[in-house]
Structures are given as structure tokens and as C-alpha cells.
């Protein structure tokens, strides 16, 4: 089926605002917070901020594999963008997120969240926050773009209803806005994330991570025992989801001072080499049993070679290419976090202007 | 919540936020066996949590109650999310029917049902999917989307992970929490009774 042959009605039956708010709530079309009703005028205003046609197909999405891929158009993305409270000038960023085809409402029983990092000129064009409070509810663009990503995911994939299309056993508060922020490129000592992913610094890009659950936290990078401290933190990241180091600019500089990590890649290499666990303990982890061990027995590398390790032999938990570093924060202090999150995709925002 | 003080009684028109569902291609299940006597039934382990431990108890039930049935436990070649033609070919070549399990997470339950549908509709092997009851609505949606809404699915209680052999045997000897019917009776019937067109 193509979107032009679509079975979903374009309009909702006319009703009062209060009735429509209730209807959207009852239909599980919201995140249970009030939404901005997507009137034709509001949707048209959103659509005016992209050169793409309203009926152009943007992508397909589903809560998990084997659930059936639902299709969506530019207009459908605009409807959800309006609902989130986003300003029309944010729309190319929201379209890029939709074009990723990565759902922010995945139905994993582990209750994962997405995380969105925005890079390039668009950050400043729409006044995103990469400084103090960047990952909190203090910036309109950060807040509403992240919310739009959640709403469009649940509605465009055919729902996110507990017991049916959402099976996250505990749920995850991160999913309210999917940890959406801009990288602090101006204060970072390293190249920005999107450049690492093959884009030019002048490109505007969204990068999507998925699997945010485990989070560890620290203050500063101490001169004497920083290596042990970081290893302890890495032990708190689940072994099946690689670490993303979220560093305040103060901490990024400290890593350079302590470890001479001139490039992000140097720090990533260090994490790869130092996050280790005895083989027997590693292979006994339930998540490793479910998701890594089957590939090892299948013969995929490097898992197959890892399986040959002696029980006490330290195994490197995270593959180097799966580890990421992002600089974010306003230098109020050198606090930093490690988020367990798998890099999924980077998408050009400029392609959706 | 209605806010009468605002007197917003003007009707307005808004757009529907839902995407467009995929087209569904209906599939046909394999013919069922007349009986399981003398047949070989594969128990397909999806390798999520302790699936194989439950299948061992299903195997034990057959050994006690249907001695003419040969059962073989086989684990998927890799992660459950991937299609596994090598395993399907082996089952097609050496087996008569399959029990695929256990669907007891949000991603493996869809995978288990999809694998069972593949065996049934593509390889002509009568198959039944074994799940835990938390995932009944998920399974219904997946089998509908997969083109075989009547695909047989049997449920045991959640959880399977970490349960003792005796506890899992009680699941197998017990009733399907969704239908209230004996689990093994449902499994045997699923492989031997023609599927409805539903």
C-alpha cells in the first residue's frame, strides 16, 4: 500500500476543543499530557517550513520487528509535530527524525528510550540548548522536538499501547522527550559527533541512539584514580548496550589533561581496552546469553573468538566502533554521565528543509 | 477533562495523527497431521532467556504420554530475530511438525510467531507457537499482520526465566491461562486439527 491509497482518514470528525482533547487522550494518540490540536491552519504552517510535498512518503516504522511497517507522509509528521507544541521552524529536524525510521516508542520489554543529538548550524538557528540544562526541560526546541519524536513514533507506527504495542515492563521516563539536546560544539575540544559520522561540520544533522536505560554518573576526572573510577562506571553499563560518554566541556578537557586524549577517538580506544570482564562472568549475563552468545555460536566475529577465552580471561565488553562521546553541558561543574545507548543512525536535517 | 467555564463550544476540524497500516497478504497453513503417532516433532528453541528449559519439559511430557512420538530439540542458529532457513530446511527434511518457543518478550514473541508462520506457510510443516500469557495481544496482532490470523498459539504462565524444572513441568501439565484448556492438549490439537479460516 502507498500512502496515497491509505485507509486512515485524513480528518477527525468535527468536535469542540475539549471533546477533541479527550478523544485524542482516549485513542492513545498522546503521551497523556495535553497536546496542541492539529488544526488545518497549524498543520499548514508547519508544512510551510519544508520544501517537501505534504503527501510525500517519509518512511515506515513499527514497534518491533515482525509487527508490520506502517507508512507515513510529510503531512502526517506535521500533524504530530503540531501536537507536540513545536514551532514550524523546527520541522526539518522533526522530519529528519521521522525519516530515520527508528522508532522512539520501541516495544522492548526492557523499556528503552531513544536519545537525540543535534549537530551543526540548525542548533543555533532554532536556539537549541547545548549548555546549562540541555538535557532538562528548559528549552522550547529541545523539549518539543524530543516530544514530537515520541508522538510521531507512536502514532505513525500504529500505536504504543501497554499490553498491545508497548511491552516495556517498567516503562522509562526518558521517553517523554527522548533525551533530545544539541552537542556543545563551541566548547568541545574535539570534533563534533556528526563529523565523526561522516558529515561536514557545516551540515545540520540529527543522530539517534537507542537503548537508554543504564546511566552512571561522576564528578570530574581525578588525577590519581581516574582510570579505576571510569572502569567502575563502565561496569554499570549493561554489556549489550555500548556506552555513550556525555561529557560537560569541563570534563572533556579533564580527560585531555589526565589521559592525553587529543581526539575523541583516543578516549574511545581507551574505553574499549579498559572496559573488561572475566569471560565466564560475561557469558553468564542474561542479556549476553540472549543477544551475543547466539551470534558467537553462529560464528560471527569477534564474538566467536571471544567465546574461546578461558573463564578468567578478561574480555573487552564493548566494540570500539560502538562507543561514542558527546560533549554537552554548561560548565556549571565537571559532572558527567555514561549512558548505555546504541548508535542507530544520523540523518541530514538539510535534506528536509 | 471538560472545562465548561471556557465555553469553547465551537466545533473545529483537526487532522488524524495515525499513520497508514500495511497491506496484509493472507497465507495458507500447512495441512495438519492425522495424528502424531510415529511422527517426529521438532521443539525449536528461540534462545531467549530459559526457553529451552520449558521445551525440555514439553519433551519430557511426550516421553511419558506419547511414546510413539520422536522429539528433537533444536536451537536457532543465531539470534531469534533473524530468519533461519538452515534450521527450517532440517525440520522440513527430518521432521513432521514443529513447536516453536518460547515467546516471552516483546521482540521474541513476534519472532516466535513469525518463525512458526514461516514453517507452516513456506515449508509446509505444521507448527504451533508457544508463548507466555503476557504476550497474547502481541501474538494476535503479529499473526494477523503475518497473514495467518488463525496461526495456532498456546500460552503458559509468565515468567519462564529462572523457574525450576518442576515449576516448568507444572506449566506444561497445567492449563493455558488464556483459554483455560490443557496446554498439551492444545499443542497436540494445533498440529493435528485443521485450522479455521478465521
Class of secondary structure makeup of chain A: alpha+beta
Judged by helices, strands and strand pairing, the structural class of chain B is: alpha/beta
Give a short account of the largest sheet of chain B: 5 strands, parallel
Domain unit count of chain A: 2
**Strand order in space, largest sheet of chain B:** 3-2-4-5-6
Task: Tell me the fraction of residues in β-strands of chain B, as a range.
Answer: 15-25%
CATH superfamily of chain B, by name, is: Response regulator
CATH class of chain B: Alpha Beta
**Count of domain modules of chain B:** 1
State the separation between the terminal residues of chain A, measured CA to CA.
27 Å
Which percent bin holds the helix content of chain B? 25-40%
Radius of gyration of chain A: 21 Å
Mean pLDDT of chain A: 96
* Count of strand segments of chain B: 6
The assigned CATH architecture of chain B is 3-Layer(aba) Sandwich
Keywords:
heterodimer, A: 353 residues, alpha+beta, 2 domains, four-stranded mixed beta sheet, 14 helices, 13 strands, globular, B: 198 residues, alpha/beta, Rossmann fold, five-stranded parallel beta sheet
